[in-house]
Amino acid sequence: MCPIQASANPPCLRLLLIALLAGGCSSPADPDPDPVQSLPALREVSNFPVGIAFQAGRIQASAYNSIARGVFSSLTAEYEMKMRHLSAGPGVYTWDNADALVEFARSNDMQVHGHALVWHESTPSWVENFTGTDEAFETQIRQYITDVVGRYGDAIISWDVVNEAFENNTGLLRQSVFRRRMGSDYLARLFRYAREADPDVLLFYNDYATPWDAAKRGAMFSMIDDFQNRGIPIDGIGLQMHVTYDFPSIDAIGAVMDSVAARGLLVHVSELDVRVNPAGDLTSLTEARSQAQKARINDIVTAFVSLPADRQFAITLWGLRDPDSWLIDFWGNPEWPLLYDEAFRPKPAYEGFLEAL
Ligand code: G3I
């Protein structure tokens, strides 16, 4: 890695970082730099926070570290702030990785979005197999929320209080342990407990597929309307945005963003990735699909920036490099869904993001 020339101006340093990481040792003075090697850092040109799903183990890895802090202004823990990874038992916590991520963000002027207080897919065994009464269960969950939100205070400006509470296609509440032990109004009580833990933290509900799953979308908006009618605290909605290069339509995406904003809530594109190989027909990323991905990212960012500025919470990419994506194991296909390639070089998708700003 070339020595990074010291610069009095951090943005220049960030630009240089992009150039160095993208193309190795190209000097910014190159007469004809590769167009992908002179891209501004998103955090320098965006009027809203641009986030990255990150992991504590990558803080020490120079390329991840440099790009995360040089390009992004928001951080979401990809998994280390979930209950299964924080809590081994009632009142028993492992804070190290979450603390490291919060400190990394603080020292690099990045905001932290907490993900996620309650998610049925990341519950520790002591919660799933709780043998006490329903009342004792709820007391433990309330204490968990109080302990976690209270620990970080202003260091974490927002939390996904609940992730993915509604079933696909039916919009019914999932029969999670939380629903079973706390009853059908558990969502409202969890949001209240989070508000009691911190009067200022922004409280989000987070889910996927809402642009195309009408039943889930309807259930989410019914919950929002009910919350707002009853004075249950909620500040924003996370639209995960795990999409493909050609589905769903940008109109469907924009409509759900607009509906959230119309209710006075913040919009967080919370887990953006764009599959380019949903049918498994590719063994390598073609230029055509790469350009389609660029257009897709551009459309989504354009839809987001068309929202009122005070509704634009953040856009968070669900990972840095293509090989890091959860999608590869989940779907079992080769995939290239993110903004950076395997060599930490910004892809055309990165340019698509920039061009929408
Ligand atoms: O890195 C550790 C490794 O050191 C350890 O030995 C191993 C065994 O426990 O775990 C490894 O961590 C895994 C981590 O992914 C990194 O690969 C965790 O077990 C595994 O649970 C974790 O999966 C995450 C998953 O949520 C469950 O928390 C994925 O990274 C993450 O991308 C995925 O993200 C979810 C969102 O939170 C909610 N929306 C859907 C999205 C995709 O499922």
Tell me what the structure shows.
This protein has 357 residues and is an alpha/beta fold. The protein contains 14 helices and eleven strands. The strands form two sheets. The chain has an eight-stranded parallel barrel, surrounded by five helices. The protein has a two-stranded antiparallel ribbon with strand order 3-4. Helix 3 (62-71) links the parallel strand 1 and strand 2. The radius of gyration is 20 Å and the shape is globular. Mean pLDDT is 92; it is low at 1-12 and 20-37. The structure holds ligand G3I.
Describe the structure using short key phrases:
14 helices; 357 residues; binds ligand G3I; two-stranded antiparallel ribbon; 8-stranded parallel beta barrel; disordered N terminus; globular
